[in-house]
């Protein structure tokens, strides 16, 4: 008997669909960026509307002076999903991404993974889709202009999502790093937006109905001061996402109606870490189900205190799993040991060395 006859060949159960960065980008372009964002937002909305069905916990975080590494798990009755993600603001100085991620979706029935995927690109897309979805419920009716303070890797994704879901075409950009604004202006102008590069945050918010803040520094910061926020605006605050990191002056919070994903996590990581632990906030899933009010009048300041929650990643994993398997974008990854006899894992190991 030859060595080949002894060596066990992987069965179909050994393989897990794997979506690489290259194939993720191919899939996004095959679908179309704005269509992808719109469909993804639909998945997120569907899952928010069944919020009580999920296991929920604040993400598990390992903090250091340089940044944070996090695991974000959740599950419903059918699937379990988690994301590994880091946030290291100084990485770009050394040629690394600030945020990288990958994720897994598994079957609750047998524990087997049904998808392993990159989530660096996917996180950027799901963050933008969530922001625009929330703005559909909270932004002033007929909003036309968005200010974007912080023009890094997330900037263009936010713009594309707000155009896809709300029709926003006019952008006012500012970043303390002028090269980041130049990059964003170049990319967004090429996508057909009307873009103004501003010299200050104060200039950027002039005439904007929606203000997006998306900065990376891991510190208490004041990107928006109280005098910069007039009545009736919607603030999409997505930069503050860990303890000790904020973007808004406390007085803005006290003037705003505050909406959050998961209070237990947002009180640790979001803008509301500046407030008393029992300060009233509204959960977005309740707004989407009509159990709580969103925007109630034209003068109201609405604030989405966004930190990102695992259910949004679960929605993204569900969406990508459907698209990747249907569209043939996933590769087969030999990830799981599958001996002929499930009780004889050692025998499988030995035969591999025959």
From TrEMBL:
Write down the PANTHER family for this protein, in alphabetical order. Answer: KETIMINE REDUCTASE MU-CRYSTALLIN (PTHR13812:SF19)
What's the protein called, per UniProt?
Answer: Ornithine cyclodeaminase
Q: Which residues form the signal peptide?
A: none
Organism, as annotated: Marivivens donghaensis
Q: Which domain of life is it from?
A: Bacteria
Residues passing through the membrane, by range: none
């Amino acid at each position: 008997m030859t060595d080949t006859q002894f060596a066990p060949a992987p069965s179909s159960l050994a393989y897990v669909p794997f979506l690489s960065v290259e194939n993720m980008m191919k899939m996004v372009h095959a679908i179309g960026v704005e269509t992808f964002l719109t469909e993804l937002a639909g998945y997120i909305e569907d899952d928010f509307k069944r919020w009580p069905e999920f296991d929920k916990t604040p993400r598990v975080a390992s903090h250091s002076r340089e940044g944070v590494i996090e695991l974000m798990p959740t599950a419903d009755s059918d699937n379990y999903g988690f994301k590994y993600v880091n946030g290291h603001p100084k990485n770009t100085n050394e040629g690394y991404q600030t945020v990288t991620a990958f994720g897994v979706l598994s079957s609750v029935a047998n524990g087997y993974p049904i998808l392993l995927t990159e989530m660096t690109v996917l996180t950027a897309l799901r963050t933008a889709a969530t922001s625009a979805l929330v703005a559909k419920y909270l932004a002033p009716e007929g909003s036309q202009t968005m200010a974007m303070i912080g023009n890094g890797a997330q900037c263009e994704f936010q713009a594309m999502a707000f155009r896809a879901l709300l029709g926003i075409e006019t952008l006012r950009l500012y970043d303390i790093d002028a090269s980041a604004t130049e990059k964003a202006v170049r990319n967004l102008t090429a996508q057909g937006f009307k873009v103004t590069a501003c010299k200050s945050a104060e200039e950027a918010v002039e005439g904007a109905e929606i203000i997006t803040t998306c900065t990376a520094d891991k510190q208490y910061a004041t990107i928006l001061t109280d005098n910069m926020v007039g009545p009736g605006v919607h603030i999409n605050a997505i930069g503050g996402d860990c303890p000790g990191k904020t973007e808004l002056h406390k007085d803005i919070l006290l003037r705003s109606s505050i909406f959050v994903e998961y209070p237990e996590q947002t009180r640790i990581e979001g803008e509301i870490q500046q407030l008393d632990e029992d300060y009233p906030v509204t959960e977005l899933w309740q707004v989407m189900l009509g159990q709580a009010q969103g925007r109630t009048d034209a003068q109201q300041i609405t604030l989405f205190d966004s930190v990102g929650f695992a259910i949004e990643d679960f929605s993204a994993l569900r969406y990508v799993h459907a698209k990747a398997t249907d569209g043939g974008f996933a590769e087969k990854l030999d990830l799981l040991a599958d001996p002929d006899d499930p009780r004889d894992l050692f025998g499988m190991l030995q035969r591999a060395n025959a």
